[in-house]
């Protein structure tokens, strides 16, 4: 039984790590280093000042992070239930794998389960957290798309390449942070 749980749990974990690399880390390393310049006044008029834009010139990875945070703030006001659901999935991924690790270690120490059982418990909780994180990602990506549309209408960037790089980095940040922190090591 423990082997079956272990094997079934590996599939979502590997899928989450591969998706994070392909849609998140790969894009951030490719587009993230591009230097971008933004008009801070237009940015503030269309996207607001929450979070604040620190500098008008920065790499696309930094501006993409600010764009993602602005999209999340806007999403919280437009659709508070969906945004709260996404935040709950993120908190679940933050809390459940470490808690399962503690439970598995204690169960192993009192000799109630074998070592493979403890590992299977940890992997199953991590797989469940990764699945929740990836399944709730769609709403956040839609929120980033809405905010990116506002950004394009604002014409805050002098060059279209800068705008595209920042938008792709914002989406990549969402993918990068969609899995539980315990898997972000890989």
User: Strand order of the main beta sheet, please?
Assistant: 1-2
* Terminal-residue CA separation: 27 Å
**For the residues shown, what is the average pLDDT?**
91
Oligomer: single chain
Radius of gyration: 19 Å
How many separate domains? 1
Q: What's the main sheet like?
A: 2 strands, antiparallel
Share in helix: over 70%
Task: Characterize the overall form.
Answer: elongated
Structural class by sheet pairing and helices: mainly alpha
The tally of helices reads 7
Percent strand: under 5%
The parts where pLDDT drops under 50 for at least 5 residues are none
Q: Topology as H/E string? A: HEHEHHHHH
Count the beta strands.
2
Notable characteristics:
two-stranded antiparallel ribbon, mainly alpha, 186 residues, 7 helices, 2 strands
Summarize the structure.
By secondary structure, the chain is mostly helical.
Structure, described:
The protein has 7 helices and 2 strands; from the N terminus they run H-E-H-E-H-H-H-H-H. It is mainly α and 186 residues long. It has one domain (2-183). A two-stranded antiparallel sheet has the order 1-2. The two termini are 27 Å apart. The relative contact order is 0.23.
Topology:
Blueprint: H1 2-31, E1 35-37, H2 40-47, E2 57-59, H3 60-78, H4 80-109, H5 115-135, H6 137-154, H7 160-176
Antiparallel strand pairs: 1-2
Helix pairs in contact: 1-5, 1-7, 2-6, 3-4, 3-6, 3-7, 4-5, 6-7
